[in-house]
């Protein structure tokens, strides 16, 4: 411990280029997400189990057509929510609690750079989820029609809305409250967000309200573009954009870094 | 480049009704090691966190390398070691240091730095599995990896075993030799005495004394011994040369100050013999910063 290695401590300060900082931080966030068992349960295991279970067994009445055609888009929406909302809220809440956000604030990586890195990491994990879920869904006989490319703007809007909600929670509540709350919201929205149980199964008085939830908008929108229905899912996109705008503005105003 | 590393004038910081920092003024020279010494709750961490840009001052002015602490360009020039935490618990410490290094233009090699701190074997260990002392070393590494001009170390040796403390001291010495300005907080007097060019003693959020360690402790030596409490020191003083001082603090612990030499020693022991008192642990010592603090505040440092 006392041997002097040739370390040159003479000052040579300077920030790395923003792209390198953001890439390094995003890489660290991706590794953290893929290494965390609870996160993998929420983001990968549960969606894949729901996809296979509800596609193979006649658990719910999904109307005409193959069950997997109904379930796969819903599970894709769940995947987006699990990563952008639940996973991000919990991880960020604990980063705040452990002083990680504060410590990063003392590095040349700006807060904007940190948020960009987090967003890139969420999108990267979502890409892994989409590939896995679509692969399993294909194996189960899923044949999406229409223009799958239209799903992309919906997923991006959904990611923005869920990230805003997740960061709103993580930046204001205690880490334990965020952990409990984010898991609870995940469960509730899984049950009544049109993911595997169609909204039409709910009473007529509740159904229109549930349709305004970001998860229902995303699931419904994805279902419509992936089943080849005519026209762009403008209503779903509008609902998601509104959730994104409100939650991101609120999160940026209320977020406490420590 | 002429501005000091840190210049604080009349700093005030309040938390609710509590005034944590109350008109604190201090200056840390470039290229020097400045120690902020004080008991827990004296305002050390608040002061350093305002310098790091984490907290805002309620009054007074602070400049770091001549700039307002909130200026983003300082982030690349200043290294920070927080008192605790800051590292994701599940992240391997080598991975975290590599991440930190990627934020800087000309960083130190993370592996070499870990090696230097005796942590090479733990590069793949998650931060939460490290001992407290090992976590401190990782945190210290994070403060210096970007080759900063100035580092803030908040209680850098808290929880370290003696060997690790010495390794930390050595590193601070190397930083100083390389021209890095260091500002650290501590409540260890020996740390402040050994490490620093300048010591600022604070209590209740204000500076009670400052100077070089030797100017604070003075050249004077003192004679100390233990005996039963309540000796009549007035009598002893009449036997001692003029200008000597004697006190009992705390009870049963006696300190004699003055021209401490063979004569004084002989006088004290002769007086004890005449009183039928056995003087234990008799020793001649220099004053320590602990004595200075006790004198100034009437309280022990810890």
Automatic annotation (TrEMBL), chain A:
Keyword Iron among UniProt keywords: no
MF-aspect GO terms: ABC-type transporter activity
Organism per entry: Planobispora siamensis
Organism superkingdom: Bacteria
GO cellular component, one term: ATP-binding cassette (ABC) transporter complex
Transmembrane regions: 40-60, 72-94, 115-138, 150-172, 184-202, 230-251
InterPro entries recorded: ABC2_TM, ABC2_TM_bact-type, ABC_2_transport, Nod_factor_ABC_transporter
Keyword Mitochondrion in annotation: no
Protein name from the UniProt record: Transport permease protein
One GO process term, biological-process aspect: response to antibiotic
């Amino acid at each position: 411990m006392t041997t002097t290695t040739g370390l040159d401590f003479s000052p040579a300060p300077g920030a790395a280029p923003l792209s390198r900082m953001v890439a390094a931080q995003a890489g660290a966030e991706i590794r953290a997400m893929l290494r965390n068992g609870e996160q993998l349960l929420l983001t990968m295991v549960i969606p894949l189990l729901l996809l296979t279970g509800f596609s193979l067994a006649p658990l719910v009445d999904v109307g005409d057509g193959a069950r997997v055609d109904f379930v796969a888009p819903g599970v894709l929406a769940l995947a987006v929510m699990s990563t952008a909302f639940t996973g991000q809220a919990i991880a960020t809440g604990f980063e705040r609690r452990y002083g990680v956000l504060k410590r990063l604030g003392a590095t040349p990586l700006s807060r904007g750079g940190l948020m960009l890195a987090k967003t890139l990491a969420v999108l990267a994990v979502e890409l892994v989820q989409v590939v896995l879920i679509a692969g399993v869904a294909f194996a189960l006989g899923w044949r999406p029609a229409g223009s799958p490319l239209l799903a992309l703007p919906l997923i991006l809007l959904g990611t923005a809305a869920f990230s805003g909600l997740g960061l709103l929670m993580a930046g204001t509540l205690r880490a334990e409250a965020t952990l409990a709350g984010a898991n609870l919201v995940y469960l509730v929205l899984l049950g009544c967000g049109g993911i595997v149980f169609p909204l039409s199964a709910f009473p007529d008085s509740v159904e229109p309200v549930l349709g305004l939830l970001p998860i229902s908008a995303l699931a419904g929108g994805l279902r419509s573009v992936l089943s080849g229905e005519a026209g762009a899912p403008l209503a779903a996109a509008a609902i998601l954009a509104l959730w994104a705008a409100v939650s991101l503005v609120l999160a940026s105003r209320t977020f406490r870094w420590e | 480049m002429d501005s000091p590393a840190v210049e604080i004038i009349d700093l005030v910081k309040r938390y609710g009704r509590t005034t944590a920092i109350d008109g604190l003024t201090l200056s840390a020279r470039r290229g020097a090691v400045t120690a902020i010494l004080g008991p827990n709750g004296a305002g050390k961490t608040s002061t350093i966190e305002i310098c790091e840009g984490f907290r805002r001052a309620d009054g007074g002015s602070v400049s770091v390398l001549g700039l307002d602490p909130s200026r983003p360009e300082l982030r690349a020039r200043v290294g920070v070691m927080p008192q605790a935490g800051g590292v994701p618990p599940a992240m391997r410490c080598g991975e975290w240091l590599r991440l930190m290094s990627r934020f800087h233009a000309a960083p130190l090699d993370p592996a070499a730095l870990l090696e230097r701190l005796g942590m090479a074997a733990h590069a793949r260990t998650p931060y939460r599995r490290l001992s407290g002392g090992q976590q401190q070393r990782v945190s210290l590494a994070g403060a210096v990896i970007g080759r900063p001009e100035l580092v803030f170390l908040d209680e850098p040796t808290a929880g370290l075993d003696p060997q690790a403390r010495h390794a930390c001291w050595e590193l601070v010495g190397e930083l100083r030799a390389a021209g890095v300005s260091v500002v650290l907080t501590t409540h260890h007097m020996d740390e402040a005495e050994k490490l620093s060019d300048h010591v600022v003693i604070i209590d209740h959020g204000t500076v009670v004394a400052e100077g070089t360690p030797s100017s604070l402790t003075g050249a004077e030596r003192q004679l100390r011994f233990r005996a039963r409490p309540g000796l009549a020191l007035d009598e002893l003083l009449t036997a001692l040369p003029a200008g000597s001082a004697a006190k009992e603090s705390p009870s049963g612990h006696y300190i004699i100050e003055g021209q401490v030499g063979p004569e004084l020693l002989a006088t004290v022991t002769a007086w004890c013999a005449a009183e039928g008192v056995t003087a234990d642990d008799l020793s001649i010592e220099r004053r320590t910063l602990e004595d200075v603090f006790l004198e100034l505040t009437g309280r022990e440092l810890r």
